[in-house]
Amino acid sequence: MSTTTGPTATAHAHTPQRFAEEFISHLELDRGVDLSTAGERDVYAALAHTVRDHLMGDWLTTVRDRGKGQEKTVVYLSAEYLLGRQLGNALLATGLTDIAREALAGLDLDLDAIADLEVEPGLGNGGLGRLAACFAYSLATLGRPAIGYGICYEYGIFEQSFEDGRQVEKPDQWLDHDNPWMFSQREHAVSVGFSGHVEIDPATGDRTWHPAERVMGVPYNLLVPGYGNNVVNTLRLWKARGSSQFNLEVFNAGDYIEAVRQQSLSENISRVLYPEDSTPAGKELRLRQQYFFTACALADLVRVADIEGFPLSEIPDRVSIQLNDTHPVIAIPELMRILIDERGMEYEQAWDITRRTFNYTCHTLLPEALERWSVGLLQYLLPRHMELIYRMNKRFLEQVRLTFPMDESRVIRMSIIEEGPERMVRMAHLATVASAHVNGVAALHSQLLRDTVLKDFAEMYPERFTNVTNGVTPRRFLKLSNPRLSDLITESVGEGWLTDLERISGLEQFADDPEFQERWRAVKLANKAELAGILEARTGRVFPTDPMYDIMIKRLHEYKRQMLKLLHVATMYRRLRLDPATPIPPRMMLFGAKAAPGYQMAKLIIRLINQVGATIAADPAMAGRLSVVFPANYNVTLAEKIIPAADLSEQISMAGKEASGTGNMKLSLNGALTIGTLDGANVEIRELVGEDNFFLFGLTEDEVVSRKAAGYNPGLVYREDQELRAVIDEIAGGYYSPPGEPDLFAPIVESLLMRDEYLVLADYRSYIDAQERVDALWGDQQAWTAMSIRNTARSGFFSSDRAMRDYFERIWK
Ligand code: NBG
Q: Which of 189, 420, 527, 579 has the fewest CB atoms nearer than 10 Å to its CB?
């Protein structure tokens, strides 16, 4: 879509005076207060509404023009969007930041302080949800017609706090105050059915689903502004509402109380985000959520098609639907149902349309993370969809038998239905069978999908498989979060990098320039001081800025190996205790991580991190030399403060487990050096920044496989490496345990010594060696800084704008 001049085009040429007037008028007319009586919430809300006004006109124009051009509309289906705060981004997109700042200053108000009041919408768990957000903003910035559909969870990802080092979860109250960035459109509400039975017309064989329950989906629009181009796309998040109209039978039966009770039960569907990351939740409510939002999305699509007057047979030419992991895959039989049952299409035609419309992105390599739903549950909740899945599977297996005759074991492996004591529907198989394209999220990951998890499918449909390496938006993760570095970059290479990140390569010429290096270091130091201030406010501890800031921020999961990092910390601490003269440069280790509330091992690791941190903090000899800090409730807002201050980025998953990673990209872009394994997008980061600018260690994916095949024995590694043994013995012996609980960490030790599924011990020595190389380089600040500059300069590829272009070229054609 071209840059349309909407009603607000003039508004962008705004003055602080006018902005101030609009702000005051929101304060008075919406909030009923004046400047002298306004509370901070009033001020925030009035400011947000003032800025939103500037987006509305462009949004209306963008929506009106959608579908008019030749381009296909991208429909992104995702159960998660981890958006981060909205105000700063909206100001940046509209070019109003300075005007707003000046206007507020004139009223004795501070923009940054007000912006700090915003509670981010945490409608996602981690990388998958954050990726969806980066993509949405990049699509808008590219000016492409796109709409994202998801769920408006009342409670997003839980708020984490620590009590005695233990993770405690509290509900996230992001909707406590009205969210000014979101508004409902009740006239677009749709009705979604569940359960009931399928009626077959004896004459025609036509099938009609009669749901026993009905829930109403009400859309809430979130505005997604492009950067400086007057395009504002939409994220439509659906909230479940019980509705008397939809449950007339119960009301008519006269049971008023029961009817109201059912109504509020229906509303549970959008109540809470499942706090699972990279592991499926497998609960009925979760399947209800998945069907709920995808059914709402498709109904919305059909509504628009009908308004615009194009026949549904044209869907594949007009839209591409992207399935973000398996969570929205139930949309496939839903589209089939609409086409066949509601629009009277023949099965063949419906299948052809469906197959050309959907595309599937897989975000994992953990087999246990591929969703499967029991046939019984699907039968009960979505009987018509189950019929359609059987039919699709039958047709598909006929194809398999034709392509690979006499290979029944292949048929069993590939079937959408998994046979066993409990028959299951494999959602990844359904997605692959019914999609035009299937992609992984980094080169290695896509390769491993083809070679392992989806091997049979890649053999049958090689042309379907492709890769799109993830990316991150430079607007949020450089411009907004790291203004100091952004200014330096702009001064050096010009403005263009914000929408053409490859231009950042212009920095390369300054990498060895001592004066430039000096300025680069000054930026990093100022960012570290800012982070230190935040950490001090939270913990009461003082953090100096001269130590290396060594950062590990990501969900807590055994495969990501926070334990390996912890063994390194314990090793350094032990060395320093045994010989205080050990030449180890000062380090601050920062962890940020939430554990799924039911994942006991992850929660115990959190506790151990906190105990190790407390033990070191209590040792006066470590002051200024070694510290561990673990700020609670890691989220996008905190990430934006941590990443600009990072010296070292820890990307240390066992090779073959991290699909891509995106934190790795953000950190490298902000000038952190990476210590990492050859996993996920680390592989590409290393290729691009150069092997000399990356600290590599650990087994490769191939070596992991052969090591396991050869019968890996962690106990042996432990016995043969004296230092490792001493460090583990300390943990086992209660050195870090709280008083009265000496054996607290025994399950961790036992898991490492007996199983060590993620080869922590196998990679320990190689990791420690790499960390020694890190220490050595830190001693040469000029060399370090040159590498840091090169990391930033060579990270242009990792923009989500590039990722979107790749999707257009390879998938949304
Ligand atoms: C996650 C992967 C990450 C990847 C993000 C975004 C899931 C299922 N997958 O490695 O673990 O960066 O997806 O693609 O959450």
A: 420
